[in-house]
């Protein structure tokens, strides 16, 4: 597991928290921020996954 995978997963978790808080409080802006954080985290995790595959090849 590399740094990008770890950081991507952490960003996804922060995004889920922000989305849940936004949904619970009716704050659409925070909910959207959480969605964007999750997408960015997934992209970074995917980059880390690709890097691991390349490293093993």
Automatic annotation (TrEMBL):
<dbReference type="Pfam" id="PF05532">
    <property type="entry name" value="CsbD"/>
</dbReference>
<protein>
    <submittedName>
        <fullName>CsbD family protein</fullName>
    </submittedName>
</protein>
<dbReference type="InterPro" id="IPR036629">
    <property type="entry name" value="YjbJ_sf"/>
</dbReference>
<comment type="similarity">
    <text>Belongs to the UPF0337 (CsbD) family.</text>
</comment>
<feature type="region of interest" description="Disordered">
    <location>
        <begin position="1"/>
        <end position="38"/>
    </location>
</feature>
<dbReference type="InterPro" id="IPR008462">
    <property type="entry name" value="CsbD"/>
</dbReference>
<feature type="domain" description="CsbD-like">
    <location>
        <begin position="4"/>
        <end position="56"/>
    </location>
</feature>
């Amino acid at each position: 597991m590399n740094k990008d995978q770890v950081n991507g997963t952490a960003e996804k978790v922060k995004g889920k928290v922000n989305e849940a808080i936004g949904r619970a409080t009716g704050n659409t802006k925070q909910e959207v921020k959480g969605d964007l954080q999750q997408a960015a985290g997934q992209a970074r995790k995917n980059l880390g996954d690709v890097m691991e595959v390349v490293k093993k090849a």
